[in-house]
Amino acid sequence: MATRVLFPxxxxxxxxxxxxVIDNALGRRSxxxxxxxxxxxxxxxxxxxxELPLTENFIAPxxxxxTSRRGRINIITSEE
Length: 80
Prior knowledge:
Order of helices and strands: EHEHEE
Number of helices: 2
Strand content: 15-25%
Strand order of the largest sheet: 1-3
Structural class: alpha+beta
C-alpha cells in the first residue's frame, strides 16, 4: 500500500532516488528501488502526467552486512 504519491517531474524523481541511495548508504545497506519500465518512466517524465505511488520501509531481500559495500545500487523495474 502506498504511503505517498509522487507526481512525476524530473527534479522530484531524482530527489526521491537520491534520498533512498543516501539513506541506505549511511546505513551501510544496498539501495533497492522498484520502478516502472524505462518506457513508462520516460513517458511520465516527458508528459508529467499520472502519479507514482511510493511505499516507505520497503523490505529488501536479506543481505550480508559483514562484507564491504563496493558501491552497489540495485534497481528493479516492475513488469506492469
